[in-house]
Amino acid sequence: MLLEDASLKALLNTLPELDRGFADLPSFEAPLDADRLLAVLQQVAGRMHDNYPYFHPFYAGQMLKPPHPIARAAYMLATWINPNNHALDGGRASSAMEKEVTAALATLFGWKQHLGHLTSGGTVANLEALYIAGQIHPDKKIVASEQAHYTHERISGVLKLPFGKVAANSTGKMDLEDLEAQLREGNIGTVVVTLGTTGVGSVDPLADILLLQKHYDFRIHVDAAYGGYFTLAGNLTPEIRRHYAALNQVDSLVIDPHKHGLQPYGCGCVLFRDPSVGKYYNHDSPYTYFTSHELHLGEISLECSRAGAAAVALWATMQYFPLEYGGEFARDLARCRQAALDFHARLAADARFLTFYPPELDILVYAPKAPRASAISQRSQELFDRAAARNLHLALFKYPTQHLTTLWPEMEPDEPYVTCLRSVMMRPEQVDWVEAIYGILVEEVSVQ
Fold this sequence. Notes:
Blueprint: H1 6-20, H2 34-47, H3 69-79, H4 92-108, E1 115-119, H5 122-136, E2 141-145, H6 151-158, E3 163-166, H7 176-183, E4 188-194, H8 206-213, E5 219-223, H9 238-244, E6 252-255, E7 268-272, H10 308-320, H11 328-348, E8 353-355, E9 363-368, H12 373-389, E10 395-400, E11 417-424, H13 434-446
Parallel strand pairs: 2-3, 2-4, 4-5, 5-6
Antiparallel strand pairs: 1-7, 6-7, 8-9, 9-11, 10-11
Helix pairs in contact: 1-3, 3-10, 4-10, 5-6, 11-13
């Protein structure tokens, strides 16, 4: 059986302990038609066949990482209670767990004080960070690299905040000269710095942007939704390590536990270095927060109802995998990056392929060789389809041709964008599958 099921046995052995916590209640059992339940679940299982095998090492495409069994089991266990982490009377234990995990994440980035909470995902987490940015600099612009996630421009539009793009250089990083030129205009309130772009996995030069902050008045928000956990990885280059080491100086950041944090969807996290920004969340809800003088998470969140199960699952995972340098979780992150490096090295040494710069995290971009940009795009699509027919699932990615002419000087730039192949090596097991993945590509590119 390909699908892991040991966690189900552990879950069944744990349910009696959960039940024991409510032993003083009168006996009660909700009616349930077990046969009908099984019949519907069989239908669900059949419908779910129409999916890519995200759990398998042969899925080397989009940024989709399977949750760890401990997270899956803990989430499901919590759903028997179904806590809501908006107010304490909706989820006392799960709210306490959420405060613990957000404090641990803040500590990971070097913050002794913080304000933060979990969200339903990275989009809402970034929305909250930009909402606070807009409250502090209401008439100033939000800027992000042209390779940053599209959500920042869209969120700025929702919040009615002016937004601008900073040029990216050929490596996919924010261009410092263009950023400083825009800062001189004096109308930028917040710079969004991406530590791990979702396209090519590039790390914006955070440490250098912090130097600019000494000369210009702006906030720094870091979108580390995808790349944040890599601060633990022991095999980053010294240059990339330099930027991660500067995270303790930023104003806010976002990390997504449902990416490299091994969580089910949706679980994001927003953190602020200055706890006083909590004043911008102030609101009145006389029927919600009356049960306790302790902090209700809804008092520092734009969201209302949120699944307490997400906090329970993350708490359980962090007990199983402590966020320790050199620990098992950190070693697995390093293996993800090593898988990307090994894959890139094989492709770079093969004259049939064109490669991007070596991976900074665990994303690599590559393409089958062809004389023209349009031909590269066509061959990439064909190889994508041929690999999928053999159960090897990749992703496609359009990159500006102008940024590839230095890397691929023999390419005729007959189109503004080149469609390339892209792989996110998010499973530590893939370090042992690189040869098999590469072997399929070699066989299929040879018949094009």
